[in-house]
Amino acid sequence: MNAIFLNIDDKRIVPDLQEAGKKLDGTEREVVLDLSSVRRIDSSALAAIEELARTADEKSVKVALRGVNVDVYKVLKLVKLTNRFSFVN
To answer: 3-88 belongs to which homologous superfamily?
Structure first.
C-alpha cells in the first residue's frame, strides 16, 4: 500500500494542508495527516480541510486523520466533514 504520512503544525495548518493537497497525485492510496499538535481550527483551516477532502475524492485517495483532539473533532462533526475521513490514534 502506498501511503503518505504528514505532520500538520498547529501554527501552519492552512499551508500544511494545502501542501498535502498538492502532494496527492493519485499514485498513493492513503494519506495520513497527524493532527496531534492541532488544538483548534478556524474557518480558513476548515476550508483547507474541505479542499483537501475534495481533491482526495477526485483522485480516489483515502485520508486518515491521526491524533485529532475532541474539540477539533466536534468542529469537523458540526460542519459534516467527519464522514469524509477516517480517524486513527
So the answer is: STAS domain (3.30.750.24)
Q: In what order do the strands lie in the sheet with 30-34?
A: 3-7, 30-34, 62-66, 86-88
Domains of the chain by residue range: 3-88
Query: How would you class 44 by CB atoms within 10 Å of its CB: exposed for 0-12, middle for 13-18, buried for 19 or more?
Result: exposed
What are 32-42's pLDDT values in tens digits?
A: 999 999 999 99
pTM score: 0.87
Could you tell me where the beta strands, DSSP code E, fall in 1-89? Answer: 3-7, 30-34, 62-66, 86-88
